Amino acid sequence: MVEKKRILFLLAASALLVSCGGGGSDTPNTTAAATTGGGTSTNNSGATQPAGTTPATNTGTPAAQSPTTVTPPATNAGSTTPAPVAVDQKLNGTLEVVANQILYIRRNRIIYLPVVMSEFESDRGIVDVAAGSPVAHIDGLEELAAAAGCNHTNDGTCAVQPPAAAPAAPIAAFGIRISKYVLPSTAGQAVGNQTVVGRIAIDLTERSDSPGVGANEVPEIMRFVIDKVELSTNQNSELSSVKVLDGAQIHVYGRSAAGTEVRADIPAPAGTVRILPMVDVPDNHGDTTSFFLLLDLETGFSQAGSKLAALENIAGHFAMHLTFSSMQELVRPAASATAESPALERKDLVGQSITVNNQPAVSGAGINGNAWIRMYPSQ
């Protein structure tokens, strides 16, 4: 399988080569995310179930929610438009990352690629990340995947076609593998039959050492907030639904390599945030106790039109932060050392507070790392 994956990742990179650009920020932040050690967990079955022989009990009555009203920043001087107020509801309980895994799509788009989160957290970060496709269908992609030896039984989805044209999407898709079981954070906490609504934010700020920053260019930035993201648990305390509600929007701030700043609000179509089942990814070992919480950003940015045209060539080495306002606690469990990876200590995953335009800051659980978008690091 290892040798086959090398073939999958190396073949046909020329099919989708994209020209490089540069990147930046409202207030440029050129420091890289802190690195962490660790390796992948060997728990192929995926998830930790609640203590006892059955999932945490609940009364069948939705757990009481305590919406948090977020105070927005002051409006710009001279503005007569009041800043919006956000209500971010918190999901009771703890969510666990499974097998220390995240997921993204490389530019060859042959498979959804799971990698260890520790790779993302390293100074180098993940590489060759696909940005949004300029076309809704890539001709010859299925034949390319077949020639590379992609097999549905072992590799899940072969040839990840874009769901829509979305040239302004800074990355095509990104996911975190989590257990479907929500664990009580405190004894007796009810975690079943919950429905909460919150926001997800991403900050991509190009690093000062990025080769994507050319002469007379500035580091690129792409920051955005997806609002009206609903998370629901069922009576068995399982996270059973993740979706955007009708009327959801993506609030965007971006800065191009030329220094052009863009601020826009675009619709967030259904499917922008969703559950990706393990059957769609490689080496799933038949696991049904976990899934990838997926940000399908090609769907999300598919209705941007020309609003984000100045941001369509994002490329380089970026510090990346992902924050979930509705996650009260997200943890990476401890894992024993193996021949392939070092031991992992338990880690509470806390996101960076992210503010976009006049939107209230998004804070909560999250992950922080680095990503090479449309590029490889120099060898």
Spell out the key features of this protein.
seven-stranded mixed beta sheet; mainly beta; eight-stranded mixed beta sheet; 379 residues; globular; 32% strand; 5 helices
Q: What features would you describe in this structure?
A:
- With 379 residues, the chain is mainly beta.
- Helix content is 8%, strand content 32%.
- It contains five helices and 17 strands.
- The strands form three sheets. Strands 5, 7, 8, 9, 10, 11, 14 and 17 form an eight-stranded mixed sheet that branches. Strands 3, 4, 6, 12, 13, 15 and 16 form a seven-stranded mixed sheet that branches.
- Strand 10 and strand 11 form a beta hairpin.
- The longest helix has 9 residues, at 2-10.
- Residues 1-66 and 69-79 have low confidence and may be disordered.
Topology readout:
Blueprint: H1 2-10, E1 68-70, E2 86-88, E3 91-105, E4 112-116, H2 117-121, E5 126-129, H3 141-147, H4 152-155, E6 173-179, E7 195-206, E8 221-233, E9 239-244, E10 249-255, E11 261-267, E12 273-277, E13 290-296, H5 297-300, E14 316-324, E15 327-332, E16 347-348, E17 365-373
- Span between termini: 25 Å
User: What would you call the shape?
Assistant: globular
The oligomeric status of these chains comes to single chain
Q: What is the share of helical residues?
A: under 10%
Tally of DSSP helical segments:
5
Q: Sketch the topology as an H/E string, one letter per element.
A: HEEEEHEHHEEEEEEEEHEEEE
